[in-house]
């Protein structure tokens, strides 16, 4: 029997029979990608043929690709917002999906400052669970022995709310962690967490982080991998250890739980774990009291083989910090997913972050690709099927889902790097139009412009205005924060704005940013206070001169609204006259604005 399954996968020798079946499934799906896509589209259109949306475009029960493409338009969230709002308000008729909408998944992307609401159906949980079930069989090909220890993963739920019609609205991972798929998952020796479910499911982010870190310290000799969803989350966890190691060491020394931990379910579960361990407490204190935290991850968790975090896209900015804390451990990006749909997985998870490519699983939804060429005079309009994309070219992802999104533009820009069998592999390039991001937040240029305009209103009484501005996401601080460079025109130097006024400008900008940003500031502590740096007059002229010296056209030069090129940041920072920070938290509540 062992010989049969060991030899059964072209991807490599599976670790066990269950892995062999998973790897075989990947091979079947990718080998027949076009046929699978045809079947998926047929299933989606047939099951939803009587929905209001498909009937509006007179599909008349047709499920073929050509008819679908000729009649159904490519859409954005704003195009679907009226239908989504009707569902949110309680309309239970088959508007987008013939299946009942079970809940809304709130996207980290926003529309008019609020999280986008993505309708979903119950069977989508099974589809997402299927993709999760493929991750460890692939990882086991590259990292042996993961069944001999545990994973220290910092996983959290976020706040949820209800729409006017009574449907839950919450992030996709909160939905998954609260589902029976996760809470009642069968024991898998290759995928055991140090954190009890009670710690992960605690809505208080401090109590959740504290107990997950405490469990990880107790089981430090068992930990083989550390992880979080995003790289920023793991960086934040290490910063948490820096701030709270004394309390954690005290709890380990005495076998008692910090009185700040009051959640009854956590207290009950930790009661089974807590025990006095003075030697471990001394070790934690000795390591954490050192000024140098380089390699702290492998010093405290010496058997760690890799970090399981997303470090593609905006998260790449955290790679140097993770390298510092981990001594350069491999960083595994295992899957590619969004609130709208789960897309695929990385079949070479131990590759360098710059080489990460995700193989699209054709059974997850129907995928089309809009060619993306930022330099094209006329934007392309003809979409390309999954198997027809070309290596080296960039595309915007367009999806059709079982839950009722049809030809929906996700906003992700992907570059084709190759194929696994007939399924393409993509490198995530960036989110379209996203300017700044610290955690899961996404701020675009128009939103930043509005924030600057709103904040600059506070300067009017001082006869002062913002001449120019740019920005960058500073991730060297933990948590990271937005830095906005302002060049001011002060017409009355005797009545210039005070430091207090400029601090209030920081807060005014934060109040103008989207709900995902404000939740990160208020509830998740994943984003630090916004900073405004006032630069000397003439700074942006120097910035233009520098750009022109590097080949930019003086006729076409525009001030970049976001910068990350080190020489430009150095030029700006050398001309800073004053620094100002938001003096308090912006307003945020889980409820959506009506």
Give an overview in words.
Residues 358-431 form the GH3 middle domain. InterPro entries: GH3 (IPR004993), GH3_C (IPR055378), GH3_M (IPR055377). Residues 447-565 form the GH3 C-terminal domain. The protein starts with a helix and ends in a 13-residue tail after the last strand. The chain contains 21 helices and 22 strands. α16 links the parallel β7 and β8 (331-332). The strands form five sheets. The protein has an eight-stranded antiparallel sheet. Mean pLDDT is 91; it is low at 1-7. By secondary structure, the protein is α+β, with helices and mostly antiparallel strands. α12 packs across α14, α12 packs parallel to α16 and α17 (445-456) packs antiparallel against α18 (499-512).
Number of DSSP-assigned strands: 22
What separation lies between the terminal Cα atoms? 60 Å
Describe the biggest sheet? Answer: 8 strands, antiparallel
Tally of individual helices: 21
User: How much helix, percentage-wise, in residues?
Assistant: 25-40%
What overall geometry do the principal axes of the alpha carbons give? Answer: globular
What's the Cα radius of gyration? 25 Å
Strand content: 15-25%
* Biggest sheet, spatial arrangement of strands: 9-10-11-16-15-14-12-13
Oligomer: single chain
Helix-strand category: alpha+beta
> What low-confidence regions span 5 or more consecutive residues with pLDDT below 50?
1-7
Average pLDDT confidence is: 91
């Amino acid at each position: 029997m062992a010989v049969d399954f060991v030899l059964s996968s072209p991807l490599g020798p599976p670790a066990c029979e269950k892995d062999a079946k998973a790897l075989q499934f990947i091979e079947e799906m990718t080998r027949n990608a076009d046929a699978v896509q045809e079947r998926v589209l047929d299933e989606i259109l047939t099951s939803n043929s009587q929905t209001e949306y498909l009937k509006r475009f007179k599909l008349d029960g047709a499920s073929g690709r050509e008819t679908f493409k000729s009649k159904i338009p490519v859409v954005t969230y704003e195009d679907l917002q009226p239908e989504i709002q009707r569902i949110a308000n309680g309309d239970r008729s088959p508007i987008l999906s013939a299946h009942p909408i079970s809940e809304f998944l709130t996207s980290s992307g926003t529309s008019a400052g609020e999280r986008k609401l993505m309708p979903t159906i119950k069977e989508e949980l099974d589809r997402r669970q299927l993709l999760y079930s493929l991750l460890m069989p692939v990882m086991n090909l590259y990292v042996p022995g993961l069944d001999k220890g545990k994973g220290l993963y910092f996983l959290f739920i976020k706040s949820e709310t209800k729409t006017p019609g009574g449907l839950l609205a919450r992030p996709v991972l909160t939905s998954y962690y609260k589902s029976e798929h996760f809470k009642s998952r069968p024991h898998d020796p290759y995928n055991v967490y140090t954190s009890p479910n009670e710690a992960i499911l605690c809505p208080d982010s401090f109590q959740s982080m504290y107990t997950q870190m405490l469990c990880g310290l107790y089981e430090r000799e068992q930990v083989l991998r550390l992880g979080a969803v995003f790289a920023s989350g793991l960086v934040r966890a290490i910063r948490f250890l820096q701030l709270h190691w004394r309390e954690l060491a005290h709890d380990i020394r005495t076998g008692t739980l910090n009185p700040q931990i009051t959640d009854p379910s956590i207290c009950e579960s930790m009661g089974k774990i807590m025990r006095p361990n003075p030697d471990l407490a001394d070790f934690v204190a000795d390591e954490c009291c050192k000024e140098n935290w380089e390699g702290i991850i492998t010093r405290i968790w010496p058997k760690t083989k890799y970090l399981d975090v997303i470090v593609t896209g905006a998260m790449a900015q955290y790679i140097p910090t993770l390298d510092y804390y981990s001594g350069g451990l491999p960083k595994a990006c295992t899957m590619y997913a969004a609130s709208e749909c789960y897309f695929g997985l990385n079949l070479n998870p131990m590759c360098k972050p710059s080489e990460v490519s995700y193989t699209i699983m054709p059974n997850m939804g129907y995928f089309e690709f809009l060619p993306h060429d930022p330099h094209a005079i006329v934007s392309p309009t003809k979409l390309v099927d999954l198997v027809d994309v070309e290596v080296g070219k960039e595309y915007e992802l367009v999806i059709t889902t079982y839950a009722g999104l049809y030809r929906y533009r996700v906003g992700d820009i992907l570059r084709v790097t190759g194929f696994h069998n007939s399924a393409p592999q993509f490198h995530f390039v960036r989110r379209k139009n996203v300017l700044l991001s610290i955690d899961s937040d996404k701020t675009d240029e128009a939103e930043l412009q509005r924030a600057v305009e709103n904040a600059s209103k506070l300067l009017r009484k001082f006869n002062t205005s913002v001449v120019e501005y740019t920005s960058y996401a500073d991730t060297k601080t933990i948590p990271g924060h937005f830095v906005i460079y302002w060049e001011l025109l002060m017409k009355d130097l005797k009545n210039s704005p005070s430091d207090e006024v400029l601090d209030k400008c920081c807060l005014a900008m934060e109040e103008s940013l989207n709900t995902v940003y404000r939740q990160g500031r208020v509830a998740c502590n994943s984003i630090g206070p916004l900073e405004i740096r006032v630069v000397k007059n003439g700074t942006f002229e120097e910035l233009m001169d520098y750009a022109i010296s590097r080949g930019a056209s003086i006729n076409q030069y525009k001030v970049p609204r976001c910068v990350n090129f080190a020489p430009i940041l150095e030029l700006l920072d050398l001309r800073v006259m004053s620094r100002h920070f938001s003096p308090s938290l912006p307003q945020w509540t889980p409820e959506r604005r009506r």
